[in-house]
Design a protein that fits this description.
Length: about 300
């Protein structure tokens, strides 16, 4: 697969806190809860980044680290029960691997530290009081999703200059979807693009959504990042290739598997940084004192073979 990769940097809004230099190997055994939609296969890349970063800080699974893995599959409601289970287990920290996971963890506890990874605005979501001073028991990584959405629509318009109508594929059960839609629609209106929202929260609904997109003869598509949709990545990529629909993806890894174009931060880096925050909390830091970090480098990846 041949791709063109451009790395774009943002000059503002950066809050990056390095991990402790030369961290000593911790003597106590820590228990970390990892809460995520999907399953071990679909979330393997993120989990691997977490394990690797924790090892780099001296936390070795099976030695001085126990990770309690809890996967909710396609049912985001199930995350609530799993979050409560992690609280009952008295884990030292919960790493919430998505906005739905963070919401479930927030509802389950106001005391257990929570480190989240989300592509959305954690202040608007009610996770933290501010980026610089989160307060409470939550902090983490926020991927600037809403701020990037305008650029994503503009890039799709550049790829398809005649674009006047597009579909936005979303998971309506993701609590962050409603937060993102107004921005998408406002930008599309400015660019004179009629955007239609199509929802899918599981495999069966996805099949129906793709049939709807196909029947409408959609001239452009944007896939909003969501763990359930990512789990069906191949199905979506194969569909848009068959129907020749130019598509912009808003999460990492689609172009490498045959998708046309993605504009996104490096998700593995976000999870690596989240693991550094887990380490700092295990060593005594308070989550409310750790500023929410945001990426400053974003990759525009275009699959030239697909194009």
């Amino acid at each position: 697969m041949i791709s063109r990769r451009a790395v774009l940097a943002l000059g503002a809004g950066l809050l990056v806190t390095p991990g402790p230099a030369g961290a000593q190997t911790p003597k106590k055994t820590a228990r970390v809860g990892l809460l995520s939609p999907g399953d071990p296969k679909t979330r393997a890349s993120a989990v691997d980044a977490v394990r690797k970063a924790l090892r780099g800080q001296g936390w070795v699974e099976g030695d001085n680290l126990v990770i309690e893995y809890r996967y909710g599959g396609e049912d985001y409601e199930r995350l609530r029960a799993l979050a409560k289970e992690l609280v009952r287990l008295k884990v030292d920290v919960i790493l919430a691997a998505s906005a739905p996971s963070a919401q479930a963890a927030k509802e389950a506890t106001a005391t257990t530290p929570i480190v989240f990874v989300t592509g959305n605005d954690p202040v608007r979501a009610g996770f933290v009081a501010s980026f610089a001073r989160p307060g409470g028991n939550m902090t983490g990584q926020a991927g600037l999703g809403p701020e990037l959405d305008r650029k994503r629509i503009e890039l799709l318009k550049t790829m398809v200059p005649t674009l006047s109508a597009a579909a936005l594929l979303v998971n309506p059960t993701n609590p962050m979807t409603a937060q993102r839609l107004p921005g998408f629609k406002a930008t599309a209106q400015e660019l004179k693009i009629d955007v239609r929202t199509v929802g899918a929260s599981d495999g069966k609904q996805l099949d129906a959504a793709l049939r709807e997109i196909g029947r409408a003869g959609t001239a452009g598509l944007i896939v909003l990042e969501d763990p359930t949709l990512i789990a069906y990545r191949k199905r979506i990529i194969d569909f848009v290739a068959q129907h020749r629909v130019p598509t912009m993806y808003t999460s990492y890894g689609w172009a490498e598997q045959g998708g046309l174009m993605e504009y996104t931060p490096d998700t593995r880096e976000l999870y690596s940084r989240a693991a550094i925050y887990v380490d700092r909390i295990l060593r005594g830091a308070k989550p409310g004192d750790l500023p929410v970090e945001q990426p400053t480098k974003f990759e525009l990846v275009i699959n030239l073979k697909t194009a």
